[in-house]
Amino acid sequence: MRIVIIEDEKPNATRLKNMLLDISPEMEVMATLDTVTASVAWFRQNPPPDVALMDIRLADGLSFDIFPQVSLSCPVIFTTAYDEYAIRAFKVNSVDYLLKPIEKEDLQLALEKIEKIRQPAGSAEMVQQLLEFFRQKEVTYRSRFMLPFRDGYKTVLVADVDFIFYAYNVTHLVLKDKTQLAVTQTMDELEEQLDPNQFFRANRQHIINVSSIDSIQNSLNGKLRIKLKRDAEREVLVSKEKVPLFKQWLDK
């Protein structure tokens, strides 16, 4: 089976590839792509794979944006951090999904299902249904965290979070009073759970609150350097691929 992986987080892409080879050494990963732009260019220049594994959120947009630009005749398995209730609402036909963090058993079952069906799953109408679902559904974003505290728990309001960083395999909230708190959620999970009008995933290690930004400077290779109001020593870089999205986020 020939597979294309579309995933902008390199560790996730590597994990998917390793799981595929564990399932069957005969699996062929034709390409690993990380943006809508790169995916469109690849599909235009290469024969279709047997399956496309697509993360929904990419560095330069939603993977749904690929479909109006190319005609895909292969089944698609979407990977997403959205909750199961939301996923049931848009699951249709031979398109399947995998909920992050992805388990090998779920991936194997999804591939077996596609092997049985072997029907084109990339119709523009179906993809439009998925896109409209994400645009129209009423989303409730996280408003607080419940964290262990002494012999019990305490709540922390999202409104008090200045920025979030990932280091040493731990996700940390940094509050506006400079308090740092460890949380169990991954950066991918928090990116989905937090209001995108208020928070932006600048890179793999940082999610910033719009109110945390002190200044923005040009950096090398088309990147941007963000200085934070309450942590002047910290350097937050926005990758070249994410710069257009960052500018759109701020320019509202």
Walk me through this protein's architecture.
The chain has 252 residues and is an alpha/beta fold. Helices cover 29% and strands 33% of the residues. The strands form five sheets. Strands 2-1-3-6-7 form a five-stranded parallel β-sheet, sandwiched between helices. A five-stranded antiparallel β-sheet has the order 12-11-10-14-13, with no helix packed on it. A three-stranded antiparallel β-sheet has the order 15-16-17, with no helix packed on it. A hairpin with a 5-residue loop joins strand 15 (213-218) and strand 16 (224-228). The longest helix is centred in the first third of the chain and has 14 residues, at 10-23. The model has no long low-confidence stretch (mean pLDDT 85).
Order of strands, widest sheet: 2-1-3-6-7
Largest sheet: 5 strands, parallel
- What's the number of extended β-strand segments? 17
Q: Find the CATH superfamily of the largest domain.
A: Response regulator
The level of helicity is 25-40%
* Radius of gyration, CA atoms, in whole angstroms: 19 Å
- Helix segment tally: 7
CATH class of the largest domain: Alpha Beta
CATH architecture of the largest domain: 3-Layer(aba) Sandwich
User: Strand percentage, roughly?
Assistant: 25-35%
The low-pLDDT segments are none
CATH topology of the largest domain: Rossmann fold
Termini separation = 44 Å
Domain Response regulatory: 2-115
Modified residues (4-aspartylphosphate): 55
InterPro entries: CheY-like_superfamily (IPR011006), LytR-like (IPR046947), LytTR_DNA-bd_dom (IPR007492), Sig_transdc_resp-reg_receiver (IPR001789)
Domain HTH LytTR-type: 173-252
